[in-house]
Task: inverse folding
């Protein structure tokens, strides 16, 4: 379900889709989309005694870090070269996560790059 709130999600994971839009002046111009699975226990360990709203912020930070790890070069993995669209939170695990192995994993957070037909 697209547009879910994080509170409606799985008991084990946060599921997000992130969109990165390169800022003007870089050698790459294609927008990049990544879906990410963040374990809730990882967020819990990082945020022992904080509110649910802050857990969402921590989950988003883990998701961004893993998503950037799917990009091929060091320059493309730098967060400052992108503008970001608001994240989409999902209730259910996106289908791509069942179709293939993740493109990047970091501390249990897994990321799958969404490849559009124009990207090859």
Result:
């Amino acid at each position: 379900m697209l547009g879910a709130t994080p509170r409606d999600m799985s008991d084990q994971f946060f599921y997000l889709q992130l969109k990165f839009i390169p800022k003007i002046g870089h050698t790459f111009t294609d927008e990049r989309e990544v879906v990410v699975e963040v374990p809730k226990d990882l967020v819990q360990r990082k945020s022992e005694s904080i509110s649910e709203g802050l857990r969402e912020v921590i989950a988003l930070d883990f998701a961004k870090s893993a998503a950037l790890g799917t990009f091929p070069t060091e320059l493309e993995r730098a967060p400052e070269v992108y503008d970001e669209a608001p994240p989409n939170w999902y209730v259910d695990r996106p289908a791509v996560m069942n179709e293939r192995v993740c493109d990047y994993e970091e501390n249990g957070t897994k990321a799958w790059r969404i490849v559009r037909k124009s990207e090859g």
